[in-house]
Sequence to fold (316 residues):
Amino acid sequence: MKRQQREELVALTKNWPSAMCFDVPMASYSTLRAGGRAAAFIDIHGLAELQALLGQLHEQGLVFRVIGRGSNILVTDKGFPGVMIRLKGELARVASVAGSGRRVPEEDGALINAGGGCSLASFLSWCTKQGLSGLEFMAGIPGSVGGAVRMNAGALGGEIGDRLHSVECVDGSGSLIRVPRAELRLSYRKAELAGKELDGVIVASACFRMQPGVQEEIRSRCAGFLAQRKGKQPAGVASAGSFFKNPVGDAAGRLIEAAGLKGHRCGGAMVSPVHANFIVNTGKSSATDILTLMEQVQETVLQKFAVSLEPEVEII
Fold:
């Protein structure tokens, strides 16, 4: 990033709640605890700030990425040349569409708006307290609402798109786009708008249609799904959750285990002995270690089973 570009970004953001930071190690912001440096990093607290920033980045020809909760990204060791953005403040809140904290009584559910930067855990907790059901299967997924919508995240037979009503996005030039569910094409681990993935836009907020339910029953279902997940996944180590997408009609973890790769290592990265679709950082893994191990897994599975595994983790 050029000096003039830095100075212009500092000038734009000098009175914002969070300062623009430069040369930031992204390992601190990734659940894999690995990754190179970003040229710049900032927390954005409001929609107007987000639009202004993206407008300036567009004029400067600088790239950007949103990192959400850092649970599904890996920045390569060569680093990222643009601005990493994390959504906070009003862009991480949950509220009834009607406002005042009250639910919207509709015959087929209540409309709830969640900021793109809101953690899935916070969103589910809010819905549980309000007695709203429909996304309990997401319990334990360590991501953000925006990231989950972008990849149509799911688990245990459900997908977040099943409850999606509409999305509010900001495009690369800073323009606001409101997209109803009918204009989105949702498929396995993918959300597309007009035939293109949502890579070029930021999900500022998403609206969901939730069903009324009994608070204790909702809490019990969340606890049950969380227990299922904890019993089958590695604990106490850095990971990005499921590393590969499941191929049609099969499971990536089954294929990797059948290939004899559980416990296989590359530097500080290892295929988890607990669940083969988890690549974990055993302590001092570099992004290169993780990517090399990823490629070794892909090559072995392809040779043994003629199946190409596609990473679920976004490589930046």
